[in-house]
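re: that chain from earlier
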Amino acid sequence: MNYIKVVLFIVLFLIVGLAYANQDWNGLESAHHYIGYLLLSLYILGSTLFIYKPLKGDRKLKRHFFIRFSVVCIAFLLLLVPYLILKQQNDGLGAGYLLYFMTVSLAAPLSIYAFIEILWLFTQKKYPQIGVNLLLVGYIYCLFLFSGLFGY
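^ sequence. v structure.
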């Protein structure tokens, strides 16, 4: 895993996310959502390409990745299922607020835990696991910014 490329990739998407959130999209709201979904899929594809080769050879790294990735997927499903249920039951007025509250209450602790684990892994010099954790924290960041569910 080339760590310089991973860090540059994450920094690039941090900058793109900040630019995307601060744009004025007068009259282009539908294009705004499609661009957000495109950027989210680009991040997922790029991060998968970065960690594919190291995951093929190392069983411990593969286990580390799949445990963390399953936690992120479970958090995503916990966000999405109540939102879809509320969206179908009424006109969706409370669904957005519930989704925002659940995202903040799930994404913040997951990110804080990931950064604490990154510091712990850094003291043990386990750099491939640090790269995997940073890319998974990027999943949370990109989902929050590029999904278009929160008015960004």
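The CA atoms of residues 33 and 148 lie 5 Å apart.
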